[in-house]
Design a protein that fits this description.
About 65% of the residues lie in helices and about 10% in strands. The protein is α/β, with parallel strands linked by helices and about 325 residues long. It has two domains: about 50-115; about 120-315, Carbonic anhydrase (Beta-carbonic Anhydrase, Chain A, 3-Layer(aba) Sandwich), CATH 3.40.1050.10. It has a five-stranded mixed beta sheet, with helices on both faces. The longest helix is centred in the N-terminal third of the chain and has 115 residues, at about 1-115. The chain is rod-shaped and about 200 Å long. The termini are far apart.
Length: about 325
């Protein structure tokens, strides 16, 4: 029995020993395998790291190239922009020049049209020379019998709101010398005062002042005429029957001082008419502070003229 037990234990121990040996070998083999696998992984990781470095280098190179290309593109775009700005600037300047040229052309066309067909606004701002030229143009039509037929109906309607005559005429009350017909003018174009011998009494002076100051008329024409009855009366030795007639004569006679041709008792002549016109023009300015100021400021021009009875011409006195 003891032998059997001893035998059994030996067998058992032997098997246990074998099992330990097997376990030892298996563990050792497993550890060896694991140690063999690990360096491979490291190699792989090394390879990966190398590849990573290469890829990093490549990427950095490509990035550098990309950055360089981007910089080049930026510079190129900048230069293109500058070129385009220069071009646009040139285009804009050329456009501006074209606009200026067009405006000049339009202005020139307007000026040409204005000279051909002057409008009322341009007439109102006309110079004294132009105004006188226009008056003589009308007088020439009157002389030739080709005076303009006035459109009185339309003129009346336009003049309801007010008047703006450029010319004042103080002329003789003689029925043969109506200024509107003599200068071929329509309604509202002349501001007319008529007295015997174109004498300016206080009422006539006030009328002239109104036209010059309030209506802003630019020209005053003192218009005498041949064969003036008031001048003839002033030259005659006859006594005037009324105070009013004497007032007219007394205004005209001072014009003839120191003039041989215009002595009292002599016949009426053109020289005496001219002297009366000159004296009348001088008295108008000297007796009115308003008119004197306007003449001094060159806002009013006084023109002396004489109407020829037979021809119908108006002659300006120099």
């Amino acid at each position: 029995m003891k032998f059997f037990l001893h035998k059994f234990t030996l067998k058992k121990l032997f098997t246990i020993g074998l099992m330990f040996l097997l376990l030892f070998f298996t563990v050792g083999f497993a550890s060896k395998c694991s140690s063999d696998k690990k360096p491979k992984k490291a190699k792989k990781s090394k390879k990966k790291s190398k590849k990573g470095k290469k890829s990093l280098k490549l990427s950095s190179k490509s990035k550098g190239k990309k950055d360089d290309s981007e910089d080049d593109e930026k510079e190129k775009s900048k230069s293109d922009k500058e070129d385009s700005d220069e071009i646009t600037g040139k285009d804009e300047s050329s456009k501006d020049k074209e606009l200026v040229d067009k405006e000049k052309e339009k202005k020139e066309e307007k000026d040409k049209k204005a000279t051909k067909n002057p409008v009322k606004k341009e007439k109102s701002s006309a110079s004294v020379k132009e105004i006188w030229k226009d008056l003589i143009k009308g007088n020439k039509k009157f002389v030739a019998g080709k005076y303009t037929k006035g459109k009185f109906v339309s003129s009346r309607k336009k003049l309801v709101k007010g008047q703006h005559p450029e010319v004042i005429v103080i002329g003789c009350a003689d029925s043969r010398v109506p200024p509107e017909l003599v200068f071929d003018k329509n309604l509202g174009e002349l501001f007319v005062i008529r007295t015997a011998g174109n004498v300016a009494d206080p009422i006539a002076l006030g009328s002239i002042e109104y036209a010059a100051e309030h209506l802003h008329s630019k020209v005053l024409i003192v218009l005498g005429h041949e064969s003036c009855g008031a001048v003839g009366a002033a030259l005659s030795k006859e006594k005037m029957p009324t105070a009013n007639l004497r007032a007219i004569v007394s205004e005209i006679r001072p014009s003839f001082k120191l003039e041989e041709e215009c002595k009292i008792g002599n016949d009426n002549n053109i020289k005496c008419v001219e002297l009366n016109v000159e004296n009348s023009a001088k008295n108008i300015v000297n007796r009115s502070p308003i008119l004197k100021k306007l003449v001094k400021e060159e806002k009013l021009t006084v023109i002396e003229a004489v109407y020829e009875m037979e021809s119908g011409k108006v002659v300006r006195l120099e």
